[in-house]
Amino acid sequence: QVQLQESGPGLVKPSETLSLTCTVSGGSISNYYWSWIRQPPGKGLEWIGYIYSNYRGITNYNPSLKSRVIISVDTSRNQFSLKLNSVAAADTAVYYCAKMDPSSGPDSWGQGTLVTVSS
Amino acid sequence: QSVLTQPPSVSGTPGQRVTISCSGSSSNIRSNTVNWYQQLPGAAPKPLIYMTNQRPSRVPDRFSGSKSGTSASLAIGGLQSEDQADYYCATWDGSLNGWVFGGGTKLTVL
Description:
Chain A is mainly β and 119 residues long. Chain A has no helices and eleven strands.
């Protein structure tokens, strides 16, 4: 079973860009679906989007975040990344990366990383 | 407001059977399979049920899932103290073209 580990700054200023990377180990990142999911403190889970790591790099984003999100993949490093721009306090959350099965959804999760948006 | 509706909390005593409901619509639960996740305090969610009623090999058969129409349920039999956690349902929504989660249910073992 693959293992996933999120990394990136834990503090981002309002209006700036949140950038996170997920490193996949124990298997190849190619030809699988990879997703980002977040959880504001004390609240529920919200799907951000996913990428399919083939040559096309097809993406699909949550409509409520679509205008601010980019998910990309670097197969040479076995990593995929999240960029969320124009962040505000409401974007403060634990961000999880996950491997996704197209039929059964997220099936392997990283441990999560807390990102706080504050000046 | 979550697309899928779960009760905020449920409780039970050790050995008891409890169920957690997840209410959706024709664009999500009626049309697609449902997943359930268990989230222990301070930890990442873990898959508990996938494709409505399938269990990963590590999950005991005390946990079971079902679906009828636009609602799904998670049943936990023989309740144990270690089952105290938050539980989330999730499925694909064809109208939103994305994955949606329930708001989560906190299970307390009395």
